Structures are given as C-alpha cells and as structure tokens.
C-alpha cells in the first residue's frame, strides 16, 4: 500500500456533527485540517464544544457553561495537525485572509444552516449562509488556484419525488427555503466549475445519526426523552420512513468525494430499506431498556413522508457503500449518550 501523502484541507462547519467526524478521519489518515465554524447557537453549542475538544486531543469534557456561548469562540486553537479558527464564511474578508494564510489542497464545505422548519421563518438566513457563504469560498478558490471543492447538500431537494431518490430526479421545484438554498449552492458550484475549472462534488446527505449528533434531530431527542421519561413529540403516526445513515459512513463518503469527478452530484444514504420512525423508537427503547411515552402531534406539512437513497452512483463513482446497519448504529449512539449523560442532561432541545 502506498503511504498517504499529507494534504491540507479547509473544512468548514468543523464543529458540526458531520464536520467534526470528517475532520477526525482526515487527521487519523495523517492530513492537516484547518477547521472553521461560526459557532452559532442554532442548537446548544455545548455539543460543538464537545466535538472540538475531541479534535483538539481532549476527551470531549471541555464545554461552555451556557447553551449559546462556546468555550472556543475567543480565538484560534491548535493541537497536532488540527487548527480551529472561529469565523463566519459569510464574511468575505475573513475568507480571503484564510486563503492568503494557508495553501489548501481542497475545500470541504459543510458549513450550512440546517432545518426545514426554521427556514420557513428565516429564509434570509439560509440564503446568506448556504448560498453567499459558498460563493465567498468559491471566489477565494478561484483567486488562489484551489481546484477541488466538496459541498454538502441535502436529500430535502427530493421532496415531492417518488423514492428511491436518484440524482437524475428533477429537483428544480424545492418545497422549502432550506431546500432552495441548497439548490442555489449546488448551482453556484456548477457555475464555478465551468468558469474556473473547479472540480466539484456535491453530496446529497440523507438522515444522519450517530454519537454527538444534533439535538434538533429526532435520534438525539428521542434517546434523551426516553432516558429521562419525557414524552416524545412525534409528528404524525410514526409510519413515515427515513433512510438513516450512520455518521461514520457519511464522513467516509465525504472524504471519498475528494477524488476528481469534474462536476457531479452524488447521494450519500444508508442504502437500507427505509426505517419507520416507530421502529427507530423501538430500537432506542431496547438499547436503553426503557419505554417511550409518546405525545402525538399533527404531521408537519414541510416534512417529507418517506426518504430512500439510490446510492448506486456513490458505489460506482466514489467506491463508497455504507457499512453500518441502523441497529448497530443506534446501539453506538446510545452508548455515547450514556457515557456523556452527566453533561448531556443539561443540553437544551
């Protein structure tokens, strides 16, 4: 086997769920990672602190005392091959300064505003981060000659299509501002590919779960609620399905996307039979050895009823297939939760 030639990657959204795990895998392979994140308080930043502390060779225990104030926001942090810079990709001057300071081999753009429901109330925030922030990165790449771009997109673009979702499905009529912003980000990557010969891989992620996951997503919430005996807020009857994808698989697929493709769009999903939300709840009940109390609410019109990824293109183009079955991933997620329960009990949902 040929030794890995160390590269230097700019990874945005480095304190995020997928970003932090991607950084861990890159660092384990011997690469240098410059991670940036604006550490916004869309969800409790103590989870972002936990992830960053692990990246900075800690045990994940250094977290701030407040849900909206990160312990890592005061300045740069370094450990080994990882440098963390607290900054916002919406600031073009800050982005330009970053590219003047480092010579990057590629940019992995995982910084984004997430969440369909919040986007309905604040569409301008999504346009600013997901579209304009991406443009700032692409312009800096064009100026400095960085030729590889990996962009995180979303399966939310497939709303209204029939599963299993293929990259050839028509996604030109997004049903939420979140999906619209992701479509705009994809279009910008395509335009810069044609204008500046930037090799761009767009990854449409499906429902991602795993240790240190986002507290605004159902896997984290359901585990915490079941463990604490709090009623689960379940929108709909629980028969809606998701193509759950373990975070390690998503991170590995993100790294696989660094290979040259020209410009292409690729699904990263679990590749499993879609799992009903009710079945996921049962899996968490089993792992926790506790029963859920369910508070049923009307189905949210902005949500998708069923998702399922066609991942054949990822296998063909990236040599990537998901490895972790949902039941195994659920057990690993619960084990992480139980190991960190002492501070997770204070996380705000």
UniProtKB/TrEMBL annotation:
Q: Would the keyword Nucleotidyltransferase be found if you checked this record's keyword annotation? A: no
Q: Which InterPro entries match?
A: Epimerase_deHydtase (IPR001509), NAD(P)-bd_dom_sf (IPR036291)
Keyword field: NAD
Output the Pfam families linked to this UniProt entry: Epimerase
Keyword Nuclease recorded? no
Under Gene3D superfamilies, the record lists: NAD(P)-binding Rossmann-like Domain
Q: Where is the NAD-dependent epimerase/dehydratase domain?
A: 10-269
Q: Which domain of life is it from?
A: Bacteria
What's the protein here called? Answer: NAD-dependent epimerase/dehydratase family protein
Organism of this sequence: Synoicihabitans lomoniglobus
């Amino acid at each position: 086997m040929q030794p890995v030639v160390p590269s230097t990657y700019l990874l945005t959204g480095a304190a995020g769920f997928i970003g932090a795990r991607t950084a861990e895998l890159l660092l384990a392979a011997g690469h240098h990672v410059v991670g940036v994140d604006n550490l916004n308080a869309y969800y409790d930043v103590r989870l972002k602190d936990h992830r960053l502390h692990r990246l900075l060779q800690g045990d994940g225990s250094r977290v701030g005392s407040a849900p909206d104030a990160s312990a890592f926001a005061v300045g740069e942090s370094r450990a080994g091959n990882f440098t963390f810079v607290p900054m916002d990709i919406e600031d073009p001057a800050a982005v330009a300064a970053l590219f003047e300071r480092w010579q990057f081999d590629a940019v992995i753009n995982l910084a984004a505003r997430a969440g369909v429901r919040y986007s309905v109330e604040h569409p301008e925030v999504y346009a600013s981060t997901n579209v304009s922030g991406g443009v700032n990165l692409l312009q800096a790449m064009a100026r400095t000659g960085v030729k590889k771009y990996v962009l995180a997109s979303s399966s939310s673009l497939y709303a209204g299509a029939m599963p299993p979702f293929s990259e050839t499905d028509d996604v030109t009529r997004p049903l939420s501002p979140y999906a619209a912003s992701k479509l705009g980000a994809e279009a910008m990557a395509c335009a810069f590919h044609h204008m500046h010969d930037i090799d761009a891989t767009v990854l449409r992620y499906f429902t991602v779960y795993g240790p240190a996951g986002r507290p605004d997503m159902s896997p984290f919430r359901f585990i915490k609620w079941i463990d604490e005996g709090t009623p689960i807020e379940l929108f709909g009857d629980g028969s809606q399905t998701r193509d759950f994808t373990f975070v390690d698989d998503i991170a590995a697929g993100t790294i696989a996307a660094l290979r040259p493709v020209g410009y292409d769009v690729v699904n990263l999903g679990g590749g499993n039979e879609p799992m009903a939300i009710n079945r996921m709840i049962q899996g968490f009940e089993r792992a926790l050895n506790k029963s859920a109390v369910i508070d049923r609410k009307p189905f949210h019109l902005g949500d998708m009823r069923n998702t399922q990824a066609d991942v054949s293109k990822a296998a063909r183009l990236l040599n990537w297939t998901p490895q972790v079955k949902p039941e195994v991933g659920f057990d690993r997620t619960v084990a992480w939760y139980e190991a960190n329960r002492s501070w997770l009990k204070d996380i705000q949902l």
